[in-house]
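Before going further, it is useful to explain how the protein records used in this thesis are read. An example of such a record is reproduced below.

***
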Amino acid sequence: MTFGEKLDLLISIANVTNSELARNVGLDASFVSRLRRGERPPSKNQNYLGPMAAYFAACTTSDIQKLALGEVLGVRASELQDDAVVFADRIASWLLENEQSEISNVENFLFQLSFPAAKNTERSIQPDHPSHGEIITEPHDAVFYGISGKQRALTAFLTMVLKSEKPVTLMLYSSEDVEWLIHDKQFTSKWSVLLGKLITMGCRIKIIHTVKRGPEDMLASIREWLPVYMTGAIEPYYNPMSREEVFGRTMMIAPGIAAVNSSSIGKGARNAANFLYTDPGVIDALAAEFNDFLGLCRPLMKIFTESDVSGYSDMITEFENFESRGIIKTDSLSCMTMPMEIAERMCFRKEPDSCEDLLYYHRSRINGFESRLKKCGFSEIIKLPCLEELMSGSVCTGFCDTPSYVSYAYTPEDYRGHLLNIVRLLESCPNYHVCLTPESVMPGSLIYVKEREGVIVVKTARPAVIFAISETAITEAFVNYLNRILKKTAEAGGPDRRRKTIAALRKYIDSISPEETAK
């Protein structure tokens, strides 16, 4: 159950209204309504969950109510009789008991993005796979039944597009159970290879994701399509009004070539009829229906690759100008805290003939960053490199890993100067925070979140790929993931953690000897 579904159930059991709950916990009734409908996931920074749980505990007084709530919480009603504090704690824990699942989904996504397992998956969409080279021939119009029929219909559909040699934009949507697509690894490999060939041929994809149970489903869907996402050939969307429905629907359309259409009830895809069409009138009608539905959807993310950087500068500028708390996790140090003179030295060492635009962009970013620090909090998660790594020249930055991705190496003097500026910010800006971690957090990825605005996730290894996600639930999942790291470090540092952080940074700075920095 989602948080909204749990809240709805608690409100029903306690027999209270949205307004009564809002009034007793100091919230706006419309905000409670959005929480209840699942339109607004709860933030882990919230201060209303405890009072909300206490209010439900106080309202659940009858034996019938306690029996019902005991069933929900998985405890005997008698355990809810005595201690109101324990009762409220049980309710609060139940409301957020899927937190670990959310964290795991974020970590799994980052792992697949950054580590060798993800690279192995990427190879599955390459066009030169030695097996599955056969071309399946089907009647131009046909009906296929059940799971095997749905697989056969998809194979025939992709094969028809491949044989047409036309680089079209595929339109894909499915709210049916996706087990037929991913459960059989041999079939998954087969359609991945065909899809890879179509992308190589120049095809693009518009896909509408269905999300029925919160960010877990959406992150799982993204993971399944991650190899395709990293090609930059896919435009993903989602329907913010999506709800659990009795009927499921699958549409696959290649304009002017073929279409597949099917529906099922619940998880009854194995009983469904799957229709393959080549009639131009039917294909046009299904394409029009898809576009009508697309008009109700929002972009799930924007994807930038090294070969397609159009719109990136505008996107990052809009993202950073949004005034809200930010958190960044990089493999090195964030570019916003890099002094201009260090950026100039790095650029002129690496690309002396093409520095002007990048340095202008960098100056505007650091000026905007320091201006926003007067109003908004910003936290940076840092793992300091070992001195041997720094002295060898292998510590790099990519200027927030722009899609054109050029790696700029620090000299010890550069790194020392960057850290001194971070210390300056810590001493002069109460809204700036640094979290020093003993171990790297998901190396190979950059995570940059703005609360209520979105998240930027970067695969920093070549080929670099950037995902700019604005969907609320996924943004909240990444905020919660980074907040968990910040909280763990804050608890270890205690109330004097800012002073301890500054002391640790100064000690590291002092360890970079003048002799080495002069080299």
